[in-house]
Design goal:
Length: 106
C-alpha cells in the first residue's frame, strides 16, 4: 500500500467511524427517558433527580453533581435530557445522577 492510498484508506475508516458514532448519538438523543425503576438505573443508583439519591448508599454523592455536569452526558447545556453511553438508546435527565458520575472537565 502506498503512502497516499494508506492515507485515503485511513480517512475512509475515520469517516465511517464518525458516521457510526453520529448515528449512535442521534439514536441516544431521541430515546425514552430512563425511569428511576429501570433495572440498569437501579444497579447504578440512577435517579432522575439528583437530590433523591440514596445518601447512605452513595456517601460521596453531592447534590451539586448531575448528569448535565457529567463527562458522559451527551446533551447540550440547555437540554432537559440527553444521551448517556451507559443507557444506550435512552435519555437521562439533565438533573439526574448515577454512581458512574465523572465531573466534566471545565
Ligand atoms: Fe448521568 Fe453521568 Fe451517570 Fe450518565 S454516567 S447517568 S450522564 S451521571
Amino acid at each position: 500500500m502506498t503512502t497516499s492510498s494508506r492515507r485515503v484508506f485511513m480517512m475512509q475508516v475515520a469517516a465511517a467511524g464518525a458516521t457510526g458514532l453520529m448515528a449512535a448519538r442521534a439514536s441516544a438523543q431521541t430515546g425514552a427517558l430512563v425511569a428511576d425503576t429501570d433495572p440498569q438505573g437501579v444497579a447504578l443508583g440512577y435517579k432522575s433527580d439528583t437530590t433523591k439519591v440514596d445518601a447512605a448508599k452513595y456517601p460521596k454523592h453531592l447534590a451539586t453533581q448531575n448528569c448535565a455536569s457529567c463527562a458522559l452526558y451527551q446533551g447540550k447545556a440547555a437540554d432537559k435530557a440527553g444521551g448517556c453511553p451507559l443507557f444506550a438508546g435512552k435519555q437521562v435527565a439533565a438533573t439526574g445522577w448515577c454512581s458512574a458520575y465523572a465531573k466534566k472537565a471545565a
